[in-house]
Amino acid sequence: MAEENNKYSILLPTYNEVENLPIVVWLINRHMTEAGHDFEIIVIDDGSPDGTLDAAKQLQKIYGENKIVLRPREKKLGLGTAYIHGLKHAKGNFIFIMDADLSHHPKFIPQFIEKQRERDYDLVSGSRYIGDGGVHGWDFKRKLISRGANFLTQLLLRPRASDLTGSFRLYKKHVLENLVGNCVSKGYVFQMEMIIRARQFGYTIGEVPITFVDRVYGESKLGGSEIFQFANALLYLFATT
């Protein structure tokens, strides 16, 4: 398919992001429009009590129904099912997944697209651990946990990707559909399994250095039980891949 015919569907799962959503949508629109890419933003709100869906409806009036697609759900049902739900309605042949809380800056999106085109990669992953990538807003303990988790995964699974738990990625649509359909993990480890399965299926992976910024507004959704879940999932993947 010719480059100018590509369309990019950006999936934004949301829960209590009423402050962040208008900003992230404005930034996505700005950077994609400046780069001349055809795109749509699919907002998958899981019953946010803070009025996120109402904000999304207002944004739809501003940017148009062809740019802002609303696919809400009644309650929190998990990230994997949010992607499946969004994929059903995506018109693009490429899919971006990213967080709506401004921890992933939309300015990096054109770099993902350029990287994908270099070698027609099946997926491109944003990495905090290559080049000038990094993390802002985390204390030493959280950085240590993240680095440790990444090191253990590299050691046991050899995934040929430097950042396994990040959630800022670009996929060919059929690749994401296949990966989501084959992943069994939940929560924090879901993104890691996506990369491991990608390696298992022989998909090509490109990487772009990104800067991750901790939540601008609202509270982090990373719970204490996530570390235990991560260890369990790591052992499961080590045994099955």
TrEMBL record:
Pfam families: Glycos_transf_2. CDD domains: DPM1_like. It catalyses: a di-trans,poly-cis-dolichyl phosphate + GDP-alpha-D-mannose = a di-trans,poly-cis-dolichyl beta-D-mannosyl phosphate + GDP. Component of the dolichol-phosphate mannose (DPM) synthase complex. The keyword Glycosyltransferase applies. One of its GO terms (biological process) is protein maturation. This is Dolichol-phosphate mannosyltransferase subunit 1. It is an enzyme of class 2 (transferase). The lineage of its organism: Eukaryota, Metazoa, Ecdysozoa, Arthropoda, Hexapoda. Transfers mannose from GDP-mannose to dolichol monophosphate to form dolichol phosphate mannose (Dol-P-Man) which is the mannosyl donor in pathways leading to N-glycosylation, glycosyl phosphatidylinositol membrane anchoring, and O-mannosylation of proteins.
